[in-house]
Specification:
Blueprint lengths: L11 E5 L4 H12 L3 E6 L4 H11 L4 E4 L5 H15 L2 E6 L14 H24 L1 E10 L3 H4 L5 H21 L5 E7 L5 H6 L3 H8 L14 H8 L10 E4 L8
Parallel strand pairs: 1-2, 1-4, 2-3, 4-5, 5-6, 6-7
Helix pairs in contact: 1-9, 3-4, 4-6
Length: about 250
């Protein structure tokens, strides 16, 4: 049985990129807790909404839009708060971990990568803080790639290092308002996208050797830690990073 966080029943939750991969697992995780979930995604996620309603008796609010457009992103958060009440939880999850050789990166590539992997995170936090209930929780998805310094992903790695600095700064600034800001740094989670684009048998075998726990990570493995940080069970935790990576890196 999964853990139940009773204070998340009825909570107003907003998730970016909640229609697929880790985001879809998070959407279901919060819906299963009884939360009022809204999520934004660029792609059509109507099938997920139907699945959640059939499975759990509750349909999340799907808002289709591009989070790199700040007006669209912030309007979606406002729509969620209007529908479900002041936000209790924001989960910044949407990201794009494309690979590029550093010598081939153009200004357009750099700006596009920062727009989705970093800029959108800040402006989601900004709007969420405006419409958030007292004692709200913001959870920013970073990545262990910046701790490992992985090659071939410089824009993405740089953005995730920035997310950590932003998380700490906002935790300090908004703590007096009762808003907690934390981050989760996943390891290699084998989403459908990862399996299709990069998870060759050789790459998987090599990465598994870096893990303490010898099991490949799945999107559902990210749910429990996120629910914990969203709930009052973590009431005095802020400005921190939790690596959920089967033991690849250490954060102490």
């Amino acid at each position: 049985m999964n853990a139940t966080f009773h204070d998340l029943n009825g909570a107003s939750v907003f998730i970016t990129g909640g229609g697929s991969g880790i985001g879809a697992a998070l959407t279901e995780g919060f819906v299963a807790q009884g939360a009022k979930v809204a999520f934004v995604d660029k792609l059509d996620a109507a099938a997920l909404v139907t699945e959640m309603e059939t499975k759990h008796g509750t349909a999340p609010l799907f808002i289709q839009g591009d989070i790199t457009d700040t007006k669209t992103l912030q309007a979606a958060i406002t729509q969620a708060a209007d529908a479900h009440g002041p936000l209790n939880v924001l989960v910044n999850n949407a990201a794009n971990d494309m690979r590029y050789d550093a010598v081939d990166i153009t200004e357009d590539i750099w700006d596009a990568q920062q727009a989705i992997n970093f800029k959108a995170y800040f402006f989601a936090c900004q709007k969420a803080a405006e419409v958030m209930a007292p004692k709200g929780s913001i959870i920013n998805y970073s990545s262990i790639t910046y701790m490992m310094g992985l090659a071939g992903m410089t824009p993405y790695v740089s953005a995730n290092a920035g997310i950590m600095g932003m998380t700490r700064a906002l935790a300090r600034e908004w703590g007096p308002k009762g808003i907690r800001v934390n981050a989760i740094a996943p390891g290699w989670v084998l989403t459908e996208k990862q399996e299709k684009m990069w998870a060759t048998p050789e790459a998987k075998a090599a990465f598994l050797q870096k893990q303490c726990l010898q099991e490949f990570m799945q999107p559902d493995d990210m749910v429990g830690g996120t629910l914990f940080l969203a709930s009052s069970a973590s009431a005095m935790i802020t400005g921190q990073t939790i690596a959920i990576d089967a033991g690849v890196v250490g954060t102490g």
